[in-house]
Design brief:
heterotrimer; A alpha/beta (383); B alpha/beta (387); C mainly beta (167); A: alpha/beta; Peroxisomal Thiolase, Chain A, domain 1; 2 domains
């Protein structure tokens, strides 16, 4: 049953704060045609297609109806996962492992610039009776989480701010990143408070863009690519959708998802067996909290690891070398796609000036954002 | 290589009602709990959860799958929601099939929910944003328009009358009298349908299924789990789905090509060569009466243009040669979109186990097909189940 | 599953009227990037013309225009003006507005139709409305022509065509 699943190619377009020249269809076409051409296939060769999207981010009810033309998937098996890109990748892997499909394509895009009031959409995700009536910024949920995390782990606000500084600087080495910048921790700390301790610059800015991945069963993958990147493990989990019964300081869903993926990939000591991490940093503290959830460092030890320079490109647990969501821009449900893309580029030695040496195994993780507690983890390797 | 076998071992469903007192989460919980009880399982036995629910605009909650996760038994579990518009409910077991057939999971709780009454003043309002925002929405379209456009084209193509089509509504609402979840069961006549309010000619009020609140759930497991849980597993023996172009006005609407494509995929997997002879019982999607006919043709259960005759001749009645919508369908039981699709799956589950009570189709049925459809008259989802 | 009494509690209209409710009017607003193909389509509508795109792969002239062919999966090739006349592929007659409210007794019914545009490939239709016609006299296959808003009132929207009328 354990068919091996490989990533044959990834095509992308972006990632920039606006993309007024392209409709969402044209944006997806640009990314998909690159993915197909790199894999040397046409959409006719693809057995199934999966799109990751949420209606209110697309601005359509039943947005899944608009997902296939620009993928060349007319009259093909296509479905939408209303979830994170990495969940759709896990779904694609399951289809291939089942034997039903041999080549599966995953797509997601962000046209975040077309949404005039993203906060209202986030708020619309909360319980209509108990939470929405409070009428506060949806970032308050992240504020509650950050506050509790800082208190439980004795991590400082400044450490969190330095994640933003690190990732936006990393983005300067990534030509696709839309938000590279040289900032200081005091810039982040002094930016407008949104929901203390969350400040404006601690929230990842958004970008537009699209990522398309071609996955295939082992023998097909080997025939289409000289250096496929293999899916070693997948995991995803939801803690509780109810704000009132969450373990606010602890990243429970990250832990469950990671353990599921580690088990499949045979990972017992993540900090030693995994060479690079592209993980959630949609709020500054998330990167630190997530590293602990992934058990890459001990509980409360992430800030210390940052101090020691372990998270930088030169460190032993390089994290968000791409610039992360802080530097690339948050891509709505496509966010995990960008994280996987960075692993793919690094593991195939196509990452240009930010290429890390001797990389074999990478981990991508994404969180679905406020107000959810859903995380997904994908572990990939090039051997 | 053979595919791993996946079985349905339990089912649960709430009443389908115009307006439920329960929240969406509570409806999901009721159906999920009932499915677990029915399978003799607890949440601890469940490896993963899949959720099927149609547009967020109905419930009025962004990321509805996240909102529903607790009620659906998803607390601290792998949860994934899928979405293929109106075709979602029959895709739900397909998504769960993918989870189990991959070998990654042994058991999956499948929960579908819709609370359409939250959307005010009418759920229909949520449908304007299904149309292209630039080239269509400014015209003020409603969902009923496109159904009416399709129904008219279908009638014109085959020379059918409104009365021919009304017979479907009469049959399904009658069948629903025996369904404990039913919202609009009843004995009506063709005349009642023809005399009901014209909404968008040729579509009249009684041609349409109601908007509903409701939830349905099933438990799917791997073969070896199923054998330990029950001596009457019902196998998910074929799955198929297909999505046609979103440029819907450039297609001829008289025939649902996407349903045929999905059906052929499912039949091939199930080893069915002559669906009109091999299938004992069918649950085609019937949100509108003509759609059942349309879908019977797309499912290759009869020749194109001949479905209406089968209904008129009683072939599709519960006691006929090819019972269609013995549950009462969306027209009779109600139409909480995603839950309706799963209601059809549950009907096959019960019928094939011989547990459908007053609705039981005679003749010991062994193979059934369920189908749903959605988007801009665009997606077909098909599941074949067998004993 | 053999339970005859299922969970789920229907609320009658009277019970609903008496209950406490929360009303919410979410402001979910978007500003669409129309992109190359639809951007040009709208610009030409403002000029009183309908423009399509051609694909050499399948020899189709496509409406609405698109920069890629979804069937051949290649970039489309040329812009092509098409006629503002066509044939009714299908139609309906409706008294229902988009929000399910009914049109008033003095308001004429709306007649939405799929119109296959002359000059575009067979079957390439667009959704629009019919006007200046008795609903009872509309037939599938009927020829129709666009009635444009006066130039000064056109704004680059699909509604720059008021409706199609028989001709």
């Amino acid at each position: 049953m354990n068919r091996k699943v490989g990533i044959v190619s990834m095509g992308y377009h972006g990632f920039s704060p606006v993309s007024p020249d392209l409709s969402f269809r044209e944006l997806v076409y640009a990314a998909a045609s690159k993915a197909y051409s790199k894999a040397g296939i046409t959409p006719g060769d693809v057995d199934m297609f999966i799109c990751a999207a949420e209606d209110f981010c697309e601005g359509y009810s039943i947005s899944d109806e608009y997902c296939n033309d620009q993928l060349g998937a007319v009259l093909k098996p296509v479905h939408t996962v209303t979830g994170e890109y990495l969940q759709a990748i896990a779904n694609a892997a399951m289809i291939i492992q089942s034997g039903l499909g041999r080549i599966v394509v995953v797509e997601s895009h962000s046209k975040a610039s077309n949404i005039k009031n993203m906060d209202a959409i986030h708020s619309f995700g909360m319980d209509p009776v108990f939470n929405r009536s409070l009428r506060v910024t949806p970032h308050f949920a992240a504020g509650l989480e950050m506050s509790r995390y800082l208190s439980e782990t004795k991590t400082s606000e400044e450490h969190c701010a330095r994640i933003v500084v690190k990732n936006r600087a990393n983005a300067l080495s990534n030509p696709s990143a839309g938000h590279g910048a040289i900032l200081s921790a005091s810039d982040v700390l002094a930016s407008d408070p949104v929901a203390w301790p969350v400040s404006r610059l601690s929230i990842a800015p958004r970008s537009d863009g699209c990522i398309v991945t071609v996955l295939a069963e082992e023998s097909v993958a080997r025939s289409l690519a000289s250096d496929p990147v293999w899916i070693l493990g997948t995991g995803w989990a939801t803690e509780s959708s109810t704000l009132e019964n969450r373990a606010w300081g602890e990243p429970v869903s990250v832990d469950i998802a990671a353990q599921m993926a580690y088990k499949e990939a045979g990972i017992t000591v993540p900090s030693q067996q995994i060479d690079l991490f592209e993980i959630d940093d949609s709020y500054s503290f998330k990167e630190l909290q997530t590293l602990e959830g992934l058990r890459v460092v001990g509980r409360g030890q992430a800030a210390h690891a940052l101090d020691e320079g372990r998270l930088g490109p030169e460190g032993d647990i390089p994290t968000n070398v791409s610039g992360g969501s802080q530097g690339v821009g948050h891509l709505l449900e496509a966010t995990g796609g960008q994280k996987l893309l960075e692993l793919f580029l690094q593991l195939t030695y196509q990452a240009g000036e930010r290429q890390l040496p001797d990389v074999q195994v990478g981990l991508a993780q994404a969180w679905r954002g406020v107000p959810t507690t859903t995380s997904a983890v994908i572990i990939v390797g090039n051997e | 290589m053979g595919l791993r076998k996946v079985a349905c071992v339990g089912a649960g469903i709430t009443k389908f009602v115009r307006r439920a007192k329960e929240t969406g989460r509570e409806l999901a919980w009721e159906a999920a709990k009932m499915a677990l009880d029915n399978a003799g399982m607890t949440l601890a036995d469940i490896d993963c959860v899949v959720i099927g629910s149609a547009p967020d605009a109905f419930d009025g909650v962004h990321m509805k799958g996240e909102y529903l996760a607790d009620g659906s038994g998803g607390f601290c579990k792998p949860v994934m929601r899928h979405f293929v518009g109106g075709g979602t409910g029959v895709f739900s077991p397909i998504h769960a099939w993918q989870h189990i057939a991959s070998g990654k999971f042994e058991t999956c709780l499948v929960v579908t929910e819709e609370k359409m009454s939250s959307c005010f003043p009418a759920p229909a309002g949520a449908f304007i944003t299904i149309f292209d925002h630039t080239t269509e929405q400014p015209l003020g379209p409603t969902l009923i328009w496109i159904f009416a456009l399709e129904m008219n084209r279908y009638m014109q193509r085959y020379g059918l009358t409104e009365a021919d089509i009304a017979k479907v509504s009469v049959q399904n609402k009658f069948n629903a009298i025996d369904h404990p979840a039913a919202q609009l069961p009843g004995k009506i006549t063709v005349k009642d349908v023809l005399n009901s309010e014209v909404l968008a000619w040729p579509v009249k009020r009684l041609d349409i299924s109601p908007a509903s609140d409701g939830a349905a759930a099933i438990v799917l497991t791997s073969e070896h789990k199923a054998r330990r849980i029950t001596d009457k597993p019902v196998w998910v023996s074929g799955v198929g789905w297909a999505l046609d172009t979103a440029y819907w006005a450039t297609r001829d609407l008289y025939y649902p090509q996407y349903v045929e494509k999905a059906a052929r995929m499912a039949y091939e997997m199930a080893g069915i060569r002559e669906p009109d002879k091999e299938i004992h019982i069918a649950e085609p999607y019937d949100p509108f009466d003509y759609k059942m006919l349309h879908h019977m043709e797309g499912l290759l259960l009869c020749k194109r243009g001949e479905a209406a005759k089968l209904v008129a001749d009683g072939v599709t009645a519960r006691t006929g040669r090819l019972p269609c919508c013995p549950s009462g369908g969306a027209l009779g039981v109600g139409n909480p979109i995603a839950a309706t699709g799963l209601m059809k799956i549950i009907e096959l589950f019960l019928q094939l186990r011989g547990e459908a009570g007053k609705r039981q189709v005679p003749g010991d049925p062994r193979i059934g097909v369920a189908q749903a459809w959605g988007d801009l008259m665009q997606v077909g989802t098909v599941v074949v189940m067998s004993r | 599953m053999s339970k005859e009494i299922l969970p789920g509690t229907p609320l009658s209209s009277e019970e609903f009227e008496k209950s406490i409710t929360i009303e919410e009017h979410p402001t979910l607003e978007y500003r669409w990037d129309d992109g190359i193909a639809i951007g040009r389509y709208l610009k030409e509508l403002k000029e009183g013309r309908i423009i399509a795109r051609t694909c050499c792969g399948c020899n189709r002239t496509m409406l609405p225009p698109r920069m890629f062919c979804e069937l051949c999966y290649r970039p489309t090739d040329e812009w092509a003006f098409v006629e503002d006349t066509g044939v009714v592929n299908t139609f309906c007659v409706t008294r229902v507005n988009w929000d399910a409210s009914r049109r008033g007794p003095d308001e004429p019914p709306l007649i939405p139709a799929v119109v296959e545009i002359d000059g575009a490939s067979k079957g390439m239709g667009i959704l629009h409305l019919l006007g200046e016609v008795d609903p009872k006299k509309v037939k599938i296959g009927m020829r129709v022509k666009a009635v444009w808003k006066p130039k000064a009132q056109r704004e680059g929207k699909i509604t720059d065509i008021k409706y199609f009328k028989p001709y």
